[in-house]
Input
Amino acid sequence: MPPPPARAAAEAPYTPRSLAATRAAMLPLLVERVRAGFWLSFVSLALFAVADFVIHPEQLGRLYLIAGLQVAAVAWGMRALRSVGTWEQGVRIPLVVVAFLFATGLVSDVLSSNAQATTIIPFASSWLTATLMPWGVVPQILMVLLSGLTSLSAILLVRGSLDGLEHSVVTAVLLLLGSIYVAYAGDRSRRERQQSEDALTASTRRAEEEARIAAVLVDVGETLAGHLGQADMLERVNALARAALDCDWSCTYVGDERRGTSRLVASAGARAEVLELIAQLELPLDPLAASPVNGDGVLELCDASEQSFFPGEMLRRLDVGSALCAPVRRGGAMIGMQAHGYRDRRGPFSSSQRRLAAGIAHATAIALENARLIADLQAASRLKTDFVATMSHELRTPLNVITGYTDMLAEGAIGGSLSPEQQETIGRVRRSADELLELVNATLDVGRLEAGRDPVARDPVPLASLLAELDGELRPLVADGVALHWLDESGGAAVVTDRTKLKTVLKNLAGNALKFTRAGAVAVTTAVDEDVLTVTVRDTGIGIPVDQIPHIFEMFRQVDGSSTRRYGGVGLGLHIVRRLVDLLGGTVAVTSAPGTGSTFTVRVPAPVVAYRATGT
Ligand code: ADP
Output
């Protein structure tokens, strides 16, 4: 069984280090400084050897013997440093070497009757250790005692008394005491620096951990938003949760309020056998109801074999060694649960794991709620579309009856010919019925588009015959003084596209052009270039104000929407054009100037095909 992951250091609240821990952290520095001191000692011993050679050639044998012993002591210290393991050892080694050097130096001084070395060197050494050694007050006091004792002994042994040296003694004492204070101040500032570095490291780690949690939750939020309502939405979240919590598996259960149970709906990392087993299980709607959850609402099973809330054998078969269970709540009610866990690893979860589990469950709850709302809206929209489609369809039948009978009345087929007033009235009835029929047809078209029930067909469409057909249908709408031109510049090509949709687009655009043109011409041109069909509908009509152009494709938008408007129409034609052109994968653009006319240009991908009409 792998060992439980240590709780992230970032989670341990910052506590200042103990003195022992501070010393342990500073041991490498102490060793480095002591080693530097030893190298300094080697150099000074070499220099003293040269001085002795010059000043005391008669004593050279004994002095060099002592110097040899001193070199050996420093070399021992150097060697001992290599295996230093504790702070005490690190302090003891240099003090022992110094004591030996001072004592042997004293012997040298007595031999050469010269107290010069052992009066100056100890003071210099004390100041050096006070500034260099990160060892604090106590070792420095020992150093000062050694120095003072050595100097005093040297003076008394060589000179016999302190007479005449009173001022020097007072100065020496002050110097030694000063070195203790320097050691104390240095030690204190080093410890303070260490503590602030520790605090900074701890807060940096905490900030990094916070940033990691935030990044994971943003990632989860984006995944949920990007796949809202899609079948794999929760699977993706489980995969993200598993990676972020560094778990073996992650599962999401969603409650079925009607049955009062919850079932597994998504997972990541779980073994197939376990998933099979879970599929047979009926969990209670709120499986955490009887268990002791934390303040964050998350239940932590540190060791599945040592708890009494769930059957241990079942958890073992479900690969639950340890787990975190986070409730997915809507309002206060539990609507599901997410569990993340390890197969074998046992032990507490880290607080960032708990926070992530709670955060992910929260985001999941919001996404599930949004998905439910969207599903409700879609159902309502479907209902509305079905209703509109049925109503429109049902309206067409009586309308056809009305137009049929008005035509018969107008032709005098029922009860003989009509008076001019009667003709006028019947004419109005007929126009109103036509407008109503147009509205019903447009509503039906929009309904079909909204429902997405209009798949795009791809058939060869000979452009010339399409234009001829449209001419036949639109000719009755051409006003006196207006010329309608059809121009096929493709050279009689056939293109692959959806014939019905393309025809509706052209009919709506050309119909509008004829409706809004009282004099001049309307020209519809088709051209094909590199498998793109371009249709241009140009008119010399009333034109469209520039500020209105962006709005004319919206539903029920008309430039003149007043009740006194001169032109018929319901404001759906261009909306349908744009929806159809979108479906065909094309674009529609407009240029227009009031009083001059408008040009609508439609471009749709439409590969040219060789086509020969059949049956002619
Ligand atoms: P409508 O049924 O009112 O024609 P459309 O959606 O087809 O609805 O057009 C929206 C509005 O755009 C029209 O009411 C009209 O104001 C303006 N429009 C469309 N085509 C033309 C055109 N060729 N010339 C001038 N105005 C136009």
User: Anything to note?
Assistant: The radius of gyration is 49 Å. Residues 166-226 form the longest helix (61 residues). DSSP finds 14 helices and 14 strands in the chain.
